[in-house]
Amino acid sequence: MSVALTTQSGPLAPASVCVYCAASPGNIPAHRAAAVSVGTALARAGRTLIYGGSSKGLMGIVSSSCLKAGGDVTGIIPYAMAATGDTPKFWLDVYAVNCDIFTYRFVSRGL
C-alpha cells in the first residue's frame, strides 16, 4: 500500500526526520532491530534522515539501514568527533560543526 501526502495546494514535499539515539549498540537486541526498522521505514517513506553522525551503535545502524533501503542521509558531527575517524564513508551529505555538544544537538534538530 502506498500513501501520497497532499495538501489543498498539491503534493506535500517529503520532510526530513532527525533521529538522535545511542552511539553504542546497547545490550537489548530489540533496540537494534528497531533501529533497522526506523532506517528502512524512513527510506521507504521518502524521508531524508538527519542524524548525529556516528558510524557506531544505534546511530550507525539507523543510517546504514536507511541507505541500504535507498534513502538519503545527512550526518551532523562535531569537528572533534570527525577527527577521531568515527565517521561512516557512505554519507551523501556530511556537515561537521565547530561547537560544544549542546549547540550540536540544537543544530542537528534545526537543519
UniProtKB/TrEMBL annotation:
Protein name per the record: Uncharacterized protein
Gene Ontology biological process terms, A to Z: cytokinin biosynthetic process
PANTHER family: LOG FAMILY PROTEIN YJL055W
Transmembrane segments: none
Any one GO MF annotation of this record: hydrolase activity, hydrolyzing N-glycosyl compounds
GO cellular component: a single term: cytosol
SUPFAM superfamilies in the cross-refs: MCP/YpsA-like
InterPro entries: LDcluster4
